[in-house]
Design goal:
CATH topology: Purple Acid Phosphatase, chain A, domain 2
Low-confidence stretches: 1-29
CATH class: Alpha Beta
Distance between the termini: 26 Å
Mean pLDDT: 90
Helix content: 10-25%
CATH superfamily: Metallo-dependent phosphatases
Number of helices: 6
Shape: globular
Number of domains: 1
Largest sheet: 8 strands, mixed
């Protein structure tokens, strides 16, 4: 297993192998122009209620989460710096939240139950469902993380299942109602929860219950993507590079993601065009091209190797400090372009990170 510190260091080095600026793409005369799909990826908002007054959010949490909504609402049409190619942010089609929506969903107790209710209520009021019923101006598509419910149950998971019944644009929903997919301008988006798993032939217990997300992924790709060559974007919560290599049975439950499931996840993607994978959890940004369970060495200043474009987004509104960030994404016909907007003062001000990542789609 790759230690957390080593993995985060690897991700930071990979980020600096980015390609700045924007390059033009030619479209064949007999092919219709591909309309880029633009969206934001946020994670680890950790809505946190006040323990002394669980009916209200803790002040730092309320201030930071509210400021993030304001920042997202003014993102479309804002200017991009010349160092990142210039131009303006495209109109956002959606915001994807990659989990740890609330902070208290992994804990128990009478006060904790009240805190969970407040945290989930406030998050829903902020984000709404379709860009019309909350403070956020864009549709929101969320998944659960370990702070929302690590064992396949809880208020947030019940809430996501209920929200999926209200969404009018879904292409498919898993039998348990938790995982789901939708299509924007020909791009397939698949939300897969805390981790992707589990391999049925590997019967050992998992630390986090993946709630049959692997089965839903395999079924959806076969039925709805097939041999079309359509781009696919996948979101889940936990990082996988630290858990990709086999470990002894006596410590496998210490892993947040079973290595057999990581292997099966990669295998499931091989036949398809994958535009990108997005996740959170680590509270740092990392970018790399995923080539399979065995990690590749990354050399500073060298181009990223060919593989599945993979993006670990930083915490976006955590109450624990002022440093936050999220990703702005454009899916183009042949590649994906990602930039990061960051703050050092809890979204009172913000600035674009002086890096961009343009990676070709992985084509299996």
């Amino acid at each position: 297993m790759l230690p957390r510190r080593s993995f985060l260091k690897l991700g930071a080095v990979a980020s600096f192998a980015a390609v700045p600026g924007v390059t033009a793409r030619l479209v064949a005369a007999d092919q219709p122009a591909f309309t880029p799909v633009a969206f934001a990826v946020i994670g680890d908002t950790h809505y946190f209620a006040d323990k002394d007054d669980p009916s209200a959010l803790q002040p730092a949490s309320r201030a930071t989460t509210a400021a993030l909504i304001e920042q997202l609402n003014r993102l479309s049409g804002s200017e991009l710096p010349a160092a990142l190619g210039g131009g303006k942010v495209l109109p956002l089609s959606q915001v994807i939240h990659v989990g740890d929506i609330i902070d208290s969903g992994d804990k128990n107790g009478a006060v904790i139950a009240k805190m969970q209710a407040t945290e989930w209520k406030e998050w829903q009021a902020d984000y709404g469902l379709d860009g019309k019923d909350g403070r956020l101006k864009y549709p929101t598509y969320e998944i659960h993380g370990n702070h929302d419910g690590p064992h396949g149950k809880g208020l947030v998971l019940d809430g996501i299942i209920a929200r999926n019944k209200q969404r009018k644009d879904l292409k498919a929903v898993s039998p348990n109602g938790l995982h789901y997919a939708w299509v924007v301008n020909g791009v397939h988006f698949i939300n897969l929860g805390i981790t992707v798993g589990r391999v049925k032939t590997v019967t050992r217990k998992r630390r986090y219950d993946p709630m049959d997300s692997l089965e839903f992924l395999v079924d959806y790709l076969a039925k709805h993507v097939g041999t079309s060559g359509a781009p696919v974007v996948i979101s889940h919560h936990v990082d996988f590079a630290r858990y990709a290599l086999p470990v002894a049975d006596e410590i496998v439950l210490k892993n947040e993601w079973d290595y057999a499931d990581v292997q099966a996840f990669h295998d499931a993607l091989k036949p398809y065009r994958i535009a990108g994978i997005f996740y959170g959890h680590t509270h740092v940004r990392a970018v790399f091209a995923w080539r399979g369970p065995k990690p590749d060495p990354v050399v500073a200043g060298k181009p990223l190797p060919t593989g599945i474009p993979t993006f670990n987004t930083d915490n976006a509104a955590h109450f624990g400090g002022p440093t936050q960030a999220f990703l702005y994404v454009e899916v183009h016909a042949e590649d994906i372009l990602v930039r990061e907007l960051a703050t050092k003062d809890a979204w009172k001000t913000s600035a674009w990170t002086n890096l961009s990542w343009r990676l070709p789609h992985y084509i299996g």
